[in-house]
Amino acid sequence: xxxxxEFLIQNGFYIDHAxxxxxxxxxxxxxxxxxxxxxxxxxGKTQLTYLISRYLNAEYIYYxxxxxxxxxxxxxxxxxxxxxxxxIKITLGPVPRALMMSQKRKVVxxxxxxxxxxxxxxxxxxDVLQNYRLSLYLDDNETIITxxxxxxxxxxxxxxxxxxxxxxxxxxxxxxxxxxxxxxxxELLKKQFKENVALLLAQIYDDTLKAGLxxxxxxxxxxxxxxxxxxxxxxxxxxxxxxxxxxxDDDWVKFIQYVSSREPYKFVNSNTDSIDVTQYYEPPQExxxxxxxxxxxxxxxxxxxxxxxKIVIKQPNNSVVxxxxxxxxxxxxxTFKAPISxxxxxxxxxxxxxxxxxxxxxxxxxxxxxxVKDGNEYKIVSEKPLTLLEYFKLLxxxxxxxxxxxxxxxLVNPATINKILSEAHVIRYYSNxxxxxxxxxxxxxxxxxxxxxxxxxxxxxxxxxxxxxxxDAIVRMxxxxxxxxxxxxxxxxxxxxxxxxxxxxxxxxxxxLLRFIxxxxxxxxxxxxxxxxxxxxxxxxxxxxxxLGKEFKLDVKNIxxxxxxxxxxxxxxxxxxxxxxxxx
Length: 584
Description:
Elements: H1 4-10, H2 17-27, E1 34-38, H3 45-56, E2 59-64, H4 71-75, E3 76-80, E4 88-92, H5 94-101, E5 107-112, H6 121-131, E6 133-138, E7 141-146, E8 152-158, H7 166-170, E9 173-176, H8 182-190, H9 195-210, H10 219-231, H11 237-244, H12 249-261, H13 301-304, E10 310-311, E11 328-329, E12 336-340, H14 346-355, E13 365-366, E14 369-374, E15 377-382, H15 388-395, E16 401-413, H16 415-423, E17 426-430, E18 434-442, E19 447-457, E20 469-483, H17 492-498, E21 502-506, H18 510-525, E22 533-537, H19 541-549, E23 553-556, H20 559-565, E24 567-573, E25 578-583
Parallel strand pairs: 1-8, 1-9, 2-5, 5-8, 21-22, 23-25
Antiparallel strand pairs: 3-4, 6-7, 10-11, 12-15, 12-16, 13-14, 14-15, 16-20, 17-18, 18-19, 19-20, 22-24, 24-25
Helix pairs in contact: 8-9, 9-10, 10-11, 18-19
């Protein structure tokens, strides 16, 4: 068995040797295995716990604490139930579940950001850490749950938002993780990117350290930015930094103030592995600009954004990867890109099983997709945009991909746009006809998703305070999805789609209402919406019922009450395929 340090390094996680050895001794010991990982946001505390669980081949139980999390949240989980009078069933929360599972196998329990809990939550863990037991009340009966101390490893993580009780700290090994040194970040990034790109990313990381931001750039964020730089995306560097690295307005002000106050870094071109990268970050006494040489990497943003692709042609054979026929030199713009190799046909399988594209007489062209060679790698690409439904189907599968989506959507204006603006991480464009936002998501089990979403209204204008009505809109998106393991990815656009089933609208165009309902039914078929539930305010119900009645069987109750109140509730009965219209 390799050491924990070797395992972490192999999985792209940098940690000093002494800390890794200490962690390994604790988690493999016969004594209490309870650790608090302290340190600022972004140093990798959560990712470290996940990798340790993989190293131990242990069950990973993760719980994200939020402000005000109390003891009940750690002990109990409340789930809907049709078999109880209250409609709620009480089941085991993360702590008792970990104790119970440890009776049979090794378990890593993570209470992430435990410093956000109420101080009274400290006392809950005292008996757990001392005696590996809990007393619960389920169905009005006291239940004692005990765990196996040999199989249970407990991690608490903390960003030092509050002090912890002395009895709790006595039961924990407290390890503080510090931001990585810039030299280490540079060496890590050099393994994945060209040296000039790695150097730029390391500069940005060092700037986030020295600017005093809430958190320095993480390796994951730097990798995302590096992939964008090498992908050929035509976006200014400051916009990419704002999208991937510096997420808060006050941090952006600090970042700009720091970067604009220092002298330009001194670039030294070297191909040796022993390069000391710190010289690139200490402001030099005299700025030296490297002479232009053919062999020199040019550190300018525009050149970093350029990517030269070469698609190699090979004769068809039994392998799809080796069946590419055409050769193209230069940069090729596509609307979809996903890896494929002799050992990984995941995306090829996903596209064919989900979409059933029209096959051709060769295996490397299927519908709007084809397999090409890009540099030394093979990619599945498309020159036509993905639809929203195609995107959602691919998101359910375990594979990396980048894509451009363009689709038409009937949305509720302004409720849908208000929701997008409130939940986006960055708002990039804001007008009464078009908004553009970005959203980034990362979880502890290896799913990372970036969405750049643009919504353009085709007829009417957006105002955040006007009454809801239905409008046609064009949705344009850039997405980048990375999955290290099978894991659910949180998508902002999917979250918005799921909210379109229960809406309140005024005086819609009957034909647009019909399209909205049919759109909701289609989303429902693919598990993207619970159903159709529309609260409708209108003075023209007769025309609306006439249009809807040509497409659906209508079940209308008390039409006189609907007309007199000017409001009705429309449901879609999936079993009978009918629209039920009821007075409100």
